[in-house]
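Quality-control log, excerpt.
Job 1 of 2 completed; input and output follow.
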Amino acid sequence: MLATHKPASSGKGAQEKPQLGVLLMVAAVLLTVVFLGVMGHQYFAPSSPSESQILGMDKSSFPGWVNDAAMQCKGDMSKLSPDLQQKIAAQYKDGGRTELMASYALQTH
């Protein structure tokens, strides 16, 4: 029968290497998650209307209730009630986010 002998570890140094590897893996995963979160936010966050979009419009380009909603939510559609969000989305092709932000920008500048 062969006897299996475990090599005597030199104590602290042999135990630190696996822990260091695990810490590096955890750090790499966390950095990846943070990076993907930042990129996702930049890609999916609503964008503001461009100056050319705003210049082509004036306050009268929007119904009064849209102007009122824009002032109520300060151009951020997510702050409106779900019913009002649906009403605005039905009014405009792109869901109304751009129009709501443009209406708010026109009224505050």
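Job 2 of 2 completed; input and output follow.
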Amino acid sequence: MTSSSPTTGSSQPGTPCRSWRRCGRCTRVASALGGTVRLADQDYVATEFAEAAGEVQMAMELIERRSFEASVRARQRRESSEADLALEQRDNALVTRVALRSVQRIFALVGSRAGNPAHPVSLAKRDIEMVSHHVTLNWRQSAVRYLAAVVQG
């Protein structure tokens, strides 16, 4: 599970964005008592990051599972049913939604520094926002198609 996911942008399992290691170590935030502290040393950052990392890892495993199932169907020369296609479209749209929320959460943690268009988290946010607008990843459309397949099948 170390291959890069185009939606999650991660080359490490459970890592919300490949740039976190760079920005998490060096980004500093102002302390309420004065001075600055590393963002990665803050408890609230650890909880948000752990949740985002877990969501991304679940999403990656879901995509890998669906890919494996599609490969098995292809090897068996079996056509995908409407239910298969609806499930895969729903899962792809769901993974995109999870990735978008995770990157937005990390973006909010980094704060105004992430507003710089060249910042790694800003780039990740831009990329996932572009992916999330793709017509095949439309959540409402995917959900309606999935429900119709469940009701018919």
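Post-run check on job 2. Confidence is low (pLDDT under 50) at residues 1-14.
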